[in-house]
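Aim 2 progress update. The chain analyzed this quarter is reproduced below.
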Amino acid sequence: MKSRNIWIAWLMLIISLFGTLIATIYFKSEIDKKNKIEFSFECKEIASKIELRLHAHAQLLRSGAAFFSTSDTVSRENWKRFIEKSKIDLNLPGILGTGFSLRIPKIS
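Predicted structure tokens:
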């Protein structure tokens, strides 16, 4: 009788450990799937933000090029007015400054 009870106890232990192993594997795979979906979502969101930012910078460059193409000469005051009217600080936060440099002719 004692021998039979011991075997039943061992059998219950093995079944319990096996059940725990199966449950652990199942929950780990579910958590991994969830983490993969969240990671993919975050990556897409970051890529979207980067793409939006690059488009904004490209637009700024195009508007600056258009400004230069409409004038024979651009002064510091003209450039300052252009930047102020563009409201870059409001429309493109994070851009700390914009500028241009004049070509200084070589003195011979």
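Helices lie at 2-69, 76-86, 88-91. The CA atoms of residues 89 and 96 lie 8 Å apart. These observations will guide the mutagenesis experiments scheduled for the next reporting period.
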